[in-house]
TrEMBL record:
Its main location: membrane. Pfam families: HlyIII. It is a multi-pass membrane protein. Zn(2+) binds at residues 126, 274. This is Progestin and adipoQ receptor family member 3. The chain crosses the membrane at residues 77-98, 104-128, 140-165, 171-190, 202-224, 236-255. It is found in: Membrane.
Length: 321
């Protein structure tokens, strides 16, 4: 009698899903695409390896099992560890050795903090997206999008601050504009329909627009520094081009669902487009020279080298839903 009551309770708690035994501590079951709830169905070419119907405790436990989210979870978690380690190193060794000012420390700290928040939010979403409650899963998705916005903000703050270091007016204009755009994105995320499939295309347009806006201050910076032929432009412009090239490639992976589109069911655990995008942006973290400072009397220009992430993880990964 007790077992029947327990089984009934599980049915009620899971919304009458027939897979209630997943709560038994003997292990975590993996499901096929046809078996998972509708809110988890995003890529029909990934046919197996799904976690579903899990309480929070088993979501955490699933960190150590092999599923189709394992690579996504660990790539972001290792990315967070990477940026945290580089942050400690930069703030304790690189910046002091370069004679950095207080504002350099602040900008570098804000930049690295934003990237770490972005990574952690992505880890949280990929870990808890399989929660038995659709409401909880959607909350983690919203947090993931918020983390992406914060990561984009960190990228813009550092880039604009140093690119227009010698022009306080334009620096303030672009920083205020970027902040206004990020706030607009946050307000859009509050809309009840934001996380629905109906807004899928609009979400993509929003993040593409915010990310692509960086082309405007880049062109302005090139013009202010004497055009394409200027040595400083030839030094830094290619890095910006590489950044947007990586974003474009990642976005193409996202919209085309290649390569799993051509090998359905063969790339469930490793090699899917989402994983390619995540690993691509996580590993594209070169050391960039971004800090430009000017002597008060305009004597000569100095450059300080800071470690920064060129692309918030999911300028395009964020477009996944």
């Amino acid at each position: 009698m007790h077992q029947k009551l327990l089984r009934s309770a599980h049915y009620i708690e899971l919304g009458s899903y027939q897979y209630w035994p997943v709560l038994v501590p003997r292990g975590i079951r993996l499901y096929t695409y046809e078996q998972i709830p509708v809110f988890l169905k995003d890529n029909p070419y990934i046919t197996d390896g799904y976690r579903a119907y899990l309480p929070s405790r088993l979501c955490l436990k699933s960190l150590f099992i092999l599923s189709n989210e394992t690579v996504n979870i660990w790539s972001h978690l290792l990315g967070f560890i990477l940026f945290f380690t580089l942050g400690i190193y930069d703030l304790t060794a690189v910046l002091p050795a370069a004679g950095a000012s207080r504002e350099d420390f602040v900008i570098c700290s804000v930049c690295l903090f934003c990237f770490q928040v972005c990574m952690l939010c992505s880890v949280g979403y990929h870990l808890f997206c399989c929660h038995r409650s659709e409401k909880t899963s959607r909350r983690w998705m919203a947090l993931d999008y918020a983390g992406i916005s914060i990561g984009i903000l960190g990228c813009y703050v550092s880039g604009v601050f140093y690119a227009f270091y010698c022009n306080n007016y334009w620096r303030q204009v672009y920083l205020i504009t970027v902040l206004a755009m990020i706030l607009a994105v946050f307000f859009a995320q509050i809309h009840p329909s934001y996380l629905t499939q109906q807004w899928h295309r609009l979400r993509s347009i929003i993040f593409c627009s915010v990310s692509g806006y960086g082309i405007i201050p880049t062109i302005h910076w090139v013009w202010l520094n004497g055009g394409i032929g200027a040595s400083i432009v030839q030094e830094f412009a290619p890095r910006v081009v590489v950044m947007y090239f990586i974003a474009a490639v990642a976005f193409l992976f996202y919209i085309s669902k290649v390569p799993e589109r051509y090998f359905p069911g063969q790339l469930n655990y490793l090699g899917s487009s989402h994983q390619c995008t995540s690993c691509n942006t996580d590993t594209a973290s070169p050391v960039l020279s971004i800090a430009q400072t000017c002597e008060p009397r305009g004597a000569e220009i100095e450059f300080q080298t800071l470690r920064v992430w060129t692309l918030p993880n999911e300028l395009s990964y964020e477009l996944k839903h």
